Amino acid sequence: MARLYEHQGKELFRRMGIPVPRGGVAQSQVEAAKIAQDIGFPVAIKAQVLVGRRGKAGGIRFAATTEEVRMATCALLGEAIHGIPVEAVLVEQRLAIQREAYLAVTADPSRRQPVVLISLQGGMEIEETAAQDPAQVFQAPINIRQGLSDHVARNIIRRTPGATSADILFLAPVLCNLYRTYRTYDCKLVEINPLALTPEGPVATDARVDIDDDAIWRHPELGLSMTEETGRPPTSLEIIAGTIDQGDHRGTAHFVQLDPDGSLTRELNKIPIAFDCVGTGASLTTMDELVPLGYYPVNFADTSGNPSASKMYRITKVILSQPHVQGYLFLSCISSQQLDNTARGIVAALKELFPATGGKPNIPMLFAFRGAFDQEAIQVFHHHGIAESPWVTLLGRDVDEREAALAFRVLHQRWRGETGRTR
Amino acid sequence: MTLAFEVLSGGTITIDTTQCPTCESKACAKVCAEQSPGPVLVIGDDGRPRLKPTITEVKRGICTECLGCLLDCEVRGKHVVRFHVPLPGLEAFIASEEAAGRTPVYRRVQ
Questions:
Q1: pTM of model > 0.90
Q2: Chain A contact for B34, CB < 8 A?
Q3: What is the per-residue pLDDT across A67-120, written as a single tens digit (0 to 9) for each?
Q4: Contact call for B68 and A351, based on CB within 8 A
């Protein structure tokens, strides 16, 4: 799913009629001071990072003067919140909050329908509230055909523990608009935590909006890249890889860089390798086998669901464009995927990337084809002469993940011994 | 003479058919015939490949982009099939990485 930054979520809320504090996004002290002066003091300065419990980690500051705004912004922009560097802050009105509530709409897979979650016992500590007294978080499934009308919203709030007449009156429009946001933008989750109850009415002081990955293409107005959610801004290669699935739903090409600059691999004293699997389970299992052998996959990739050869061709080019890799391992789970097509895509990429040798690589590469058309897949490599490369190992359905990892080590050690290369 | 058609991914397959009448293997059509949902490329009376479905059907995905025509023509045919599919940003990324001294393995001396 694609998780929006708080300021992006609040922009959607504003469009959909949910009150949000006045404010703006800043990437420097000067910008932050200007915004604060425009909206008036006091203000809240909030780190824009895609992690939870930001406030407890010091990611939210308050300021009553321009100088305080500058200092708080300077401090936040140099910080990392739960390991994620802060590249922008949201400067917005600090509100006089009387009470806090929690509102959310999400999908309930067991009911196969949207569900509203609401609590009037504070928003910020909703996890603790739910754990200690689950009855305080009221849940109501929504009939997706009927939607959420005002009278149904009022009825939901009326049944919420602690609700007053004023709550029913003021919160029902917010709940209806939150549900409209959920449906309009194909969300998996929309959440206001907390919803501040102020003398002027309810105001969303935070916004969590997760959009269904498969629906991003329906919302070009949001300007989202089709990358995997990692909790950090996507890398350039992840953005490039994200375009592969755009408009082509034949299989998937998931790609996440685990160590984009190679620093973690160096720190762990491991050997960096590029990696692709058919199936996430096989991917994780194979990673588990590789790491104790001294290798570190610098990326996760899952090319499953029977992707076209052209999709494999593109993702292979992306995977092998990662610098500092010393090898490549591809492995399929025992799948029904037509693996000869998978192989054609990989071979087409290798022939393009290594034209001088007709596709024979200059680093060790292991391909384990297991599943439908696996023999044909191996034949494709033979047919194009790549199987004859000294640095290519081809395996079939008779190996497991551990055996594949061990075979890769044998190949890599031979490559290192014969070429004297370490990169 | 050129046969060019767009495919679902946004790519374009281009075949320079000038030499095709003298190609004995007709590898492109043979490999295409093995693919589901059936051949996209067939050999016409002039010995050159042509599309069996309409160009619109091909663009909508009847060509599964198996790349068989590209690869088999290279090995058994006249090496006249080209496939271009956009991968926006990759060249610029590689250029910036190389400028920073981080060259991908396939651009290093082999």
A1: no
A2: no
A3: 999 999 999 998 888 878 899 999 999 999 999 999 999 999 999 999 999 999
A4: no
The architecture CATH gives domain A230-419: 3-Layer(aba) Sandwich (3.40)
CA atoms A97, A100, A101, A102: torsion sign = positive
Q: Which residue has the tokens 């300077």?
A: A74
CA A294, A299, A302: angle at the middle one, nearest 5? 115
- Contact assignment for B106 to A384 by CB distance below 8 Å: no
Residue of B nearest to A352 (CA): B106
At residue A83, the pLDDT reads 79
Among A49-58, A230-239, A242-251, A308-317, name the most confident range: A308-317
CATH 3.30.470.20 positions along chain A are 99-215
A67 contacts A73 by C-beta, under 8 angstroms:
no
Chain B residues inside the 8 Å CB shell of A308? 8-9, 64-66
Q: How far is A218 from chain B (nearest CA, A)?
A: 17
A48 contact partners, CB below 8 Å, separation of at least 6:
A5, A6, A7, A25, A86, A87, A88, A89, A90
pLDDT tens, residue by residue, A128-169:
777 788 888 999 999 999 999 999 999 999 999 999 999 999
Boundaries of CATH 3.40.50.261 in chain A? 230-419
Residue limits of CATH 3.30.1490.20 in chain A: 22-93
CATH assignment, A99-215: 3.30.470.20
The top-level CATH class assigned to A22-93 is: alpha beta
Quick check: A243 and B75 CB within 8 A? Answer: no
> Model ipTM?
0.96
Distance of CA B98 to CAs A265, A271, A299, A362, B95, Å?
20, 21, 20, 18, 5
